[in-house]
Amino acid sequence: MNNPVPAPASIRSPIGLVAAALPVLAVLVLGVVWGRSLPGVVELLVVLVLAGSVLAAVHHAEVVAHRVGEPFGSLILAVAVTVIEVGLILSLMTSGGSSASSLARDTVFAAVMITCNGIVGLSLLVSALRNRIAVFNPEGTGAALATVITLATLGLVLPSFTTSTPGPEFSTPQLVFAAVVSLALYGLFVFVQNVRHRDYFLPVHPPGRPAARAGAAADDDHAPAPSPRDALISLGLLLAALVGVVGLAKVESPTIENAVSAAGLPQAVVGVVIALLVLLPETLAAARNARRGRTQISLNLALGSAMASIGLTIPAISVASIWLGGPLLLGLGATQIVLLVLTAGVGILTVMPGRATLLQAAVHLCLCAAYLLLSANP
């Protein structure tokens, strides 16, 4: 999320036109369905519009980010995706009662597991199939992984072991500390990645591949920036998409929870659904970069998404919990902690050599599959 990616499609292209129409459609649909009881077919259409609005919001955030450049562009992308994630979480928390007190934890943990295992594994798989060996910069990737592990431990593991309050939750001073540290570490990482040590996060060409060819691929990152007019249009459509996403999520929140309950699945699955929806654009971008031989950018996208999910979502939910009332359960259970520790250990061993094969990709994908299985069948 915090990296240069290929320039988004022009607003005049077919993809750009669809992305421009979806936010407007979402706002119109929101005005029609708000406060009404909807039949099943209409519910399905609203869900499709909601999913399309998420993709459109990220597209327009990329347009604005490409115009303003780094490091501000990465911040716009991170804030836009975090607003979507927080909006979905809050929409479900305000209507879910006490069962939603752990929704923020479930969503953030799902984002960490899906990015650090699912997206990383997919990126390594695509790159290794293309080049036999996926190569990347261990300094930059290792710094990103270390930050993710630290944020996950401080925000999701420690609440299960603190004794100031009963249950897996922080006391108020502890919650404030975790929120401030999360923001500080995320902000410092953005500065290091985009300003201080930017070369640590640039693509590395595979062995035996001419440097000129790798450089040619990197030229895609420097496509002409969109015009000020296109950037302003995208900014307006981004705001409309965010309003549509948050509003439609509020409309659909009872349906989502009822569907999960009717299927006999744990409430943690709701967090998985939110994470999958929010991370879909990042997954597609990571796979596209891996296919073009830019494994480093794919890993930057994956770990940057995990970092933003923890470093921005937890502080936002912490502030919102003042008005929501009730407990904010952040601490992970024993099974989740085991999976997180295993993910951290495997991630370190994958990153240290600066290269990976199909085996490392398969290990990460198996961990992601294990997490998804245990979420549905704990």
Automatic annotation (TrEMBL):
Membrane topology term: Multi-pass membrane protein
Main location (coarse class): membrane
InterPro entries to which the protein is assigned, alphabetical: Alkaline_pH_Ca-Antiporter, NaCa_Exmemb
Keyword annotations of the record: Membrane, Transmembrane, Transmembrane helix
A Gene Ontology cellular-component term: plasma membrane
TM stretches of this protein: 15-34, 40-60, 72-93, 108-129, 141-162, 174-192, 231-249, 261-280, 301-323, 329-351, 358-376
Molecular functions per Gene Ontology: potassium:proton antiporter activity; sodium:proton antiporter activity
Cell compartments where the protein resides: Membrane
Domain Sodium/calcium exchanger membrane region: residue ranges: 44-193, 234-375
Keyword flag Membrane: yes
Pfam families membership: Na_Ca_ex (PF01699)
Listed name of the protein: Ionic transporter y4hA
